Amino acid sequence: MVDHSFFTRVIAWQQVSGRKGLPWQATHDPYRIWLSEIMLQQTQVSTVIDYYQRFLASFPDVKSLADASTEAVLAHWSGLGYYARARNLHKAARMVMEEFAGQFPGAPEALVRLPGIGRSTANAIAAFAFGVPAPILDGNVKRVLMRHLGIEAPPTGAALEQRLWAVVHDRVPADATHAQMIAYTQGMMDLGNMVCARSKPACQLCPVASDCEALHRGLQNVIPLPKPKKTVPERETVMAVWQHDGQLALQKRPDTGIWGGLWSFPEYPAVDDVPGGKGQLLPAFMHVFTHFKLHITPLLMQGPNIPQDLSLQWFPLADALALGLPQPIRRIIETIAASQQEYRLQSRT
Q1: pLDDT tens digits for 105-116?
Q2: CA–CA dist 37, 65 (Å, integer)
Q3: What is the pTM of this model?
Q4: Which of 37, 152, 213, 267 is catalytic?
Q5: Rounded Cα distance, 334 and 330, in Å
Q6: From start to end of the chain, where are the E strands?
Q7: Backbone CA torsion sign across 261, 265, 270, 273
Q8: Residue 315: C-alpha distances to residues 186, 240, 248, 285, 305 (Å)
Q9: How many CB atoms lie within 10 A of CB 171?
Q10: Residue 266 near residue 310, CB atoms below 8 Å
């Protein structure tokens, strides 16, 4: 007989010590839960809250999102990063309208068919919105389980994934109630984030510390073992920033690839490659992607003459900032806007 004491201890702890009051916790609406789960992928809660509320103000339900343009969706996602999430969100909304008559399916097997939803995210939506006894297995939960089971290995590999899925399913009772599934799912998220952290886990606060193998063996700071280190490639680019009469020239990137469908500046290997490349070098900076680091040198060019083969469009600064922009492009535009504001203030004194 499977022991479900782990399940009940996590629930009891979450009800006392877990996170509460987050804007997506006071609803069973699968649309809002789905939106929060997608936004929270690889993004901190503190960052997501404002984006989540602004997004819902413009797209309060799945129909309004499905009816929106891709450009509008990307504009609301601008700065949140990992833009494939936004494109998949939009595609999934349209799929819900077309294939599910505007109603989110409750079964994880159906949810996982939607673009951008993996097995763990599908289970989270099913548990929170519909009370399905479906456990999650994100990165934080993996770490909790590996320590609790004393698995001395990196958190990678299909064999480990299969083993952990079997464990999490065993720990959730088939007759768990909706309220229990909400508390347990949130509790596992909170436990990994607040207590069983990557470094310096607060074992004295953990509700399952009494039978934690890693703690018992003094390995809580060792498990999981580190992933094999990979050399992160570094690249360099010069971004040509054409400015004229308070406007900036931007081009829309292709729908696929990095920053797909977003507005950006033309890129060149070096300053000498920029057409008419005499301009003002703005402070260089680095942007970190998942698989490489990009060193960006912005080159500010003055005047209306821009290359005709680049499909550039002129936008006033305020309008440019309302577009769907990658974070580095927004940073460059905000730097220019701040510089102009400072110049205007100095001119008045």
Answers
A1: 999 999 999 999
A2: 16
A3: 0.84
A4: 37
A5: 6
A6: 234-244, 247-252, 263-264, 267-268, 280-281, 285-288, 293-302, 313-316
A7: positive
A8: 44, 15, 5, 24, 15
A9: 19
A10: yes
